Every structure is written in structure tokens, then in C-alpha cells.
Amino acid sequence: STGINAEYGGIMFAIVTLISTFLMSLAYKNVKYSLKHKIAQKRHAGVTAEVMQQVADASNDMKKTVKKEKDDRVLFKKTEVADLEATHFSIFYNNALFLFLTIILSFYVLKNFSAGANYLGSSVTSACIVAFLSTGSN
Questions:
Q1: Does the pLDDT value for residue 8 go beyond 50?
Q2: Are 72 and 55 in contact (CB under 8 A)?
């Protein structure tokens, strides 16, 4: 009898983990995508100044660096910075929201349910809410 409960618990844990992981990965992607362009616009001036300084330092030997090459370097660096910052913020924001919702659901909303139902309900519902909120327009 104990083996069946442990087996059932392990299977439920695996299924809930897979569902939550899938939903959270969607949320990460959605939030990152919606923030990347905004961050790139906000960081444009700083990134441009940094890249131009690097180009000036690197091209002391060369009289002129082609404008297109400078623009390409700025665009590449701006995209790189925005991607990294959007990724970090997306992970932080979604994990914080997931943790907050899981705690509220586990300890307040579903406190009278069995441990398995509490875990299933709080984890999957939290992941669903985070995924749903990530699809909203910002």
C-alpha cells in the first residue's frame, strides 16, 4: 500500500513539474519578448557611447571606420544587452510571481485540501496564472 502511494506521488510530482515547467517557460519567453525592444530603446544612448569609444580606441591606426560598421556594432551590442537584461528580468519577475501565488494558494486558499491536491492545485494554478499574465500587452 505504501509503495503505491509513493509511486502515485512520484508520478503526480513528475506530471505537475512538467506542466509547471512548460507554462513557466512560455511565460519567460513572452515577458522577455515584450521587454526586449523597450530595453533596447532605453539603453541605446549608453550602448552607442560605449561602442563608439571602443571603435575609437581600436581604430587609432585606421583613419576611418566605416559608418555602416559602427552602426552594425552598435546594433549588435544593443541587441545583446537588451536580450540579456530582458532574460534576467523575465526570470526574476516570473519566479517571484510564481512563488507569491504558490504561497498564497498553498497556505490560504487550498489549506484544507490534502497535501497532493494542495500541491497540484497551487503549482499548476500558479503556473497558469503566470503564463496567462505574460500574454497581456504591456
A1: yes
A2: no
- 110 DSSP 8-state letter: S
Reference 95, options 5, 4, 11, 25; nearest CA is 25
The span from the CA of 85 to the CA of 10, in Å, is 36
Give the cell for residue 16.
Answer: 505537475
Element (H, E) at 56: helix 2-58
pTM (2 d.p.): 0.79
Find out whether 32 and 94 touch, Cβ atoms under 8 Å: no
Rg of the Cα atoms in the chain: 23
Nearest Cα residue to 76 out of 84, 87, 65, 88: 84
